[in-house]
Specification:
Elements (H helix, E strand, L loop, with lengths): L2 H12 L2 H12 L4 E2 L1 H8 L3 H14 L2 E3 L3 E3 L1 H21 L14 H4 L10 E7 L5 H14 L4 E5 L4 H10 L4 H6 L3 E5 L13 E2 L5 H15 L3 E5 L1 H8 L1 H17 L3 E7 L5 H10 L2 E10 L2 E11 L9 E6 L3 E4 L2
Parallel strand pairs: 4-9, 4-10, 5-6, 5-8, 6-7, 8-9
Antiparallel strand pairs: 1-3, 2-3, 10-11, 11-12, 12-13
Helix pairs in contact: 3-4, 5-13, 10-12, 11-12, 12-13
């Protein structure tokens, strides 16, 4: 698929926040059938704006128009496959840089998937099912890197920083030691959301994109090439709008590369339409996927590296277990 054709598809799918909201609505209600008034009422938007978005969806074949609009899951799957197939082809064509110094991740389950380790800088998306352990993995990565000398930054949108500190302690990592030496810094974006004054040195409303962007740039400069965790993009997409959040993600990717940092951004892959996930995947440098499957009454966890620029990686699903003290481990 050409770049222009892919851009046309993305524009028709995600060209406005209303389109994104419609996609999320249909993703959660695939059997919906109703009038334009019904749709506008469901997402609480002006009917004139909804009509413009619906017209593009009809042209794509995503909606079938009679007297009512109803979602076509088969057309949706075809569009998903088209976008994902194209992303996979692009990744397979990419060339790997000559790697002289391979730095292992020091996390066994990831070392099996990334023989060359992480790139020195870039933005990596952790795309995960609920309860698959994305919080554990992101903290595991951060603590492991800080322990060997790299500084860390945790931008939390979903929990109080003290909850993260307690979580780290469960893995035997005492954050206070590193915070005193300015080797670990928190940006509290959760307290402003719940109306509580933050006790952290750095705090910002995550929906104030300009101020948050300025604060992140300042802290990145102070820490000098840190490991960063941004938890989570899901909150931005749900509260700040899809288009604005994706633009913020694109801007963050640039800031991370400029500062030679390595950032891990978490995202719940079950909460959003695949087109939104694909748009996020296209922006970032790497994608780690985590899924939960239930077969014959047993719940199994799987992980793979779907994309990692300039690094060899395995896109095959690897089973793993979650150890409350050691984190993610390969299933033996």
């Amino acid at each position: 698929m050409s770049v222009d054709k892919r851009k046309t598809i993305f524009d028709k799918l995600l060209g406005s926040d209303i389109k994104a909201e419609l996609l999320i609505f249909f993703h959660r209600n695939p059997s919906f059938s109703g009038s334009l008034n019904d749709l506008a009422s469901k997402i609480n938007k002006p009917i004139e704006e909804v009509e413009k978005a619906v017209e593009d969806f009809v042209k794509l074949g995503l909606l079938n128009e009679v007297k009512h609009y109803y979602f076509d899951p088969e057309a949706d799957k075809e569009l998903q496959n088209l976008v994902l197939e194209d992303l996979t082809k692009e990744e397979s064509k990419s060339t790997f840089e000559l790697i002289k110094d391979v730095e292992k991740t020091n996390i066994e389950v990831l070392d099996k998937l990334l023989p060359d380790g992480f790139p020195p800088s870039g933005l990596i998306l952790i795309l995960s099912d609920p309860a698959a352990g994305k919080d554990i993995l992101s903290i595991q990565i951060l603590c492991t890197k800080i322990a060997v000398g790299r500084k860390g930054l945790f931008i939390t949108l979903d929990k109080f920083p003290d909850e993260i500190r307690d979580f780290m302690l469960e893995f035997g990592f005492n954050s206070s030691v590193f915070e005193k030496e300015n080797k670990l810094v928190f940006i509290d974006c959760y307290s402003p959301q719940v109306g509580i004054k933050s006790k952290e040195k750095y705090s910002e409303d995550p929906l104030n994109f300009p101020n948050l962007s300025i604060l992140i740039s300042r802290v990145l400069k102070e820490l000098n090439s840190p490991i960063v965790v941004f938890d989570s993009l899901s909150t931005l997409l749900q509260k700040g709008g899809v288009r604005s959040s994706l633009e913020f993600l694109r801007s963050l990717t640039g800031k991370i590369k400029e500062s030679k940092a390595l950032c891990f951004v978490t995202l719940n892959r079950r909460a959003f339409h695949p087109a939104i996930l694909a748009a996020s995947e296209e922006i970032v440098d790497g994608v780690i996927e985590m899924k939960v499957e239930e077969t014959e009454g047993k719940v199994e966890n799987y992980i793979r590296v779907f994309k990692m620029m300039r690094r060899r990686h395995s896109s095959s699903w690897l089973p793993y277990i979650i150890d409350v003290e050691k984190g993610l481990l390969p299933k033996t």
